[in-house]
Design a protein that fits this description.
The strands form 2 sheets. Strands 2-1-3-4-5-6 form a 6-stranded parallel sheet. It has a 6-stranded parallel sheet with strand order 9-8-7-10-11-12, with helices on both faces. Helices cover 40% and strands 15% of the residues. It folds into 2 domains: 2-154 and 333-357, 3-Layer(aba) Sandwich (Rossmann fold), CATH 3.40.50.2000; 169-326, Glycogen Phosphorylase B (Rossmann fold, 3-Layer(aba) Sandwich), CATH 3.40.50. Helix 1 crosses helix 13, helix 6 (183-191) crosses helix 11 and helix 9 (260-267) packs across helix 12. With 386 residues, it is of the alpha/beta class. Residues 171-321 form the Glycosyl transferase family domain. Residues 366-379 have a biased composition (Low complexity).
């Protein structure tokens, strides 16, 4: 199969979504598929003129026999091309709807939601990276449930983390220095625990320079500059070294489409302290750590106090984390699962075509006639924002 993966450039960025896309592309090639990666220019996900022009140019340049897979981060730029995507039977790869991303003004969020409500029902298939994201797509974004599938990220077999060896508790947080990752909430939670022996390493690139500088200033204002290290963007062996020397993984995220960093922590037997922002709380079992509400530094601080102080409890959670990590999906079968989702889209299309040729009304597999009361917006901006 000839597959074109369209994603905002550069493709080598270090984030959960880009790691997923790179592993998917490599896995599809390993299965013998002809995969091309098209890096989309411009600003994403809230597209500027360059992004929309780049989307049109990419679509025009791709051959008709290429199966289009568009990363959800770049999908809003294709809103003016909705009908073309429907004709090309494009597949959307949805890590999480961009309208759910924190940090946007209400008008920007409304624009993103209108674009996604316009586009999602037109896609031949939406492949979400978590069941939680999949569950939200019909009610909030008008997607047909029969055209939604899930392919969760994988993990690689990894050695169990031996930890720091003490004294104290070494904490690692992995996530870009953006508001959504909630590093400021984590810093405020830990600032209440200076009577305990701990240190924190934050691994993540500072693409949002204003926010990154603000985090460093916050750590200093809270008197934590001697305990907190900003490690920058790490991958490969450098990131593995941070997992291996850690005693606890922490992430105070506002929203995760899956929670790949937490999954990687579980795969190494690290107990976790997280906030229940999005799907990450479904990845982590209760026995493997502590979970607090998003944005609640007080509750997170109280939860982390016992985990940091009580080494026996931490050991029990580490064992539960290790067992949970061995049950997580593996990368070696993710590409095959994604191909199956593309196949599901083709089966639906064949069924619709057969019904159309027989003169029967087009119906989705969920039983609703196409266009009958679907609420699909006729033009960009007419979609609801509820």
């Amino acid at each position: 199969m000839k597959i074109a993966l369209l994603v905002p450039g550069p493709f080598d960025q270090v984030s959960g979504g880009y790691i997923y896309d790179r592993r998917l592309a490599a896995g599809l090639r390993g299965l013998g598929h002809d995969v091309s990666v098209v890096e989309l220019p411009g600003r994403h996900p809230l597209p500027d003129d360059a992004a929309e022009a780049g989307a049109r140019a990419a679509l025009d340049a791709l051959p008709d026999d290429a199966r289009l897979v568009i990363d959800g981060l770049g999908l809003p730029a294709f809103a003016p091309l909705r009908d073309a995507l429907a004709r090309r039977r494009a597949v959307g790869l949805i890590h999480h709807p961009t309208a759910l991303e924190p940090g946007y003004a209400d008008s920007e969020r409304d624009d993103l939601k209108a674009r996604e409500r316009l586009l999602f029902p037109a896609m031949a298939r939406l492949v979400a990276t978590s069941p939680l994201t999949a569950r939200r797509l019909p009610g909030e974004f008008g997607a047909d449930p029969a055209r939604i599938g899930v392919v969760e990220p994988g993990t690689d077999p990894a050695p169990r983390a031996p930890g720091s060896g003490g004294p104290g508790c070494r904490i690692v947080a992995v996530g870009t220095l953006t508001p959504r990752k909630g590093h400021d909430v984590l810093l405020r939670a830990l600032a209440r625990l200076t009577d305990l022996d701990w240190s924190l390493g934050i691994a993540g690139g500072g693409r949002d320079r204003v926010h990154a500088n603000g985090l460093r200033a916050l750590a200093e204002d809270l008197g934590l500059d001697g305990r907190v290290e900003f490690l920058g963007e790490l991958d490969g062996a450098a990131l593995e070294a941070q997992y291996q020397r850690a005693d606890l993984f922490a992430l105070a995220t506002w929203w995760e489409g899956y929670g790949m960093a937490a999954a990687e922590a579980l795969a190494r037997g690290l107990p976790v302290a997280i906030t229940a922002g999005g799907a990450i709380a479904e990845v982590v079992p209760a026995s493997a750590g502590v979970v607090s509400p998003p944005g609640d530094a007080n509750t997170l601080s109280r939860a982390m106090r016992r985990v940091i102080f009580d080494t026996a409890l931490r050991a029990e959670m580490a064992e539960a984390a290790w067992m949970a990590g061995q049950r997580l999906p593996r990368w070696d079968d993710r590409a095959a699962a994604f191909v199956a989702e593309i196949g599901a889209a083709e089966r639906i299309e064949i069924g619709v075509a057969e019904r159309t040729e027989s003169g029967a009304p087009e119906r989705t597999e969920s039983g609703a006639a196409e266009g009958a009361g679907s609420g699909t917006p006729a033009a960009l901006g007419s979609g609801g924002t509820a």
